[in-house]
Design brief:
Number of strands: 0
Structural class: mainly alpha
Shape: globular
Number of helices: 8
């Protein structure tokens, strides 16, 4: 009656560290504002996943079959939000050095994962695949929550800093609009994969 921690960490790292809607938004935010100014947003993104983990672990999965239309509606609301984020990313331009725009804050980051269908898919897979039957829900939920938070604390700033580094080389150059279009396209593609291609990711 345990959680397979090491296999779950391997799975989760492969998902949290690879491109997905949240990581594309982090990359774009880092490119626009730099890591330091984006830190409140990064913190919100990291903690926002906890808003999925605890309800799922403590009973939401058990009632999913009873209310399928509600969960289907939530899925499509989530898709619409991520597509809106992709649209915003496509229109961003890089100007880390001096920009008067206000970076997205903690609460903006907090809702990224709850509205990210890939996050729901990954966490559901974690509970159904890596938790032994009979494991107390609190133990399972706390273990998965701690594992994912630890990975996000490491990997989310890396994605954000990568955006800052890219901006340093592309800001003001013709290639910047193509970069932002590519990030937006990857965001859309990652959502489509989550919906129609199989397993979830970060």
């Amino acid at each position: 009656m345990t959680v397979a921690v090491l296999p779950f960490l391997t799975f989760a790292a492969s998902q949290v560290g690879t491109p997905g809607p949240a990581n594309m938004v982090l990359l774009a935010t880092g490119a626009r504002f730099g890591l330091r100014r984006a830190l409140p947003f990064v913190a919100g993104v990291a903690l926002g996943k906890q808003l999925i983990i605890w309800p799922l672990g403590l009973g939401l999965m058990a009632i999913q079959d009873d209310f399928p239309l509600v969960f289907e509606a939530l899925k499509w609301v989530s898709v619409a939000y991520i597509l809106f984020l992709a649209y915003r990313v496509a229109g961003m331009r890089l100007s880390v050095r001096e920009t008067d725009d206000t970076p997205p804050g903690f609460f903006a980051g907090l809702i990224v994962h709850p509205l990210n269908p890939k996050a729901w898919g990954m966490i559901t897979t974690g509970f159904t695949t890596f938790v032994s039957t009979g494991t107390p829900p609190l133990q399972a939920t706390a273990t998965i929550a701690i594992c994912l938070l630890g990975l996000q604390i490491i990997l989310h700033p890396i994605w954000t800093y990568a955006g800052q580094a890219i901006a340093a080389g592309l800001a003001g150059k013709p290639g910047e609009k193509y970069l932002m279009w590519a990030l937006a396209a990857l965001t859309v593609a990652s959502v489509m994969y989550a919906l129609f291609g199989g397993g979830g990711a970060k």
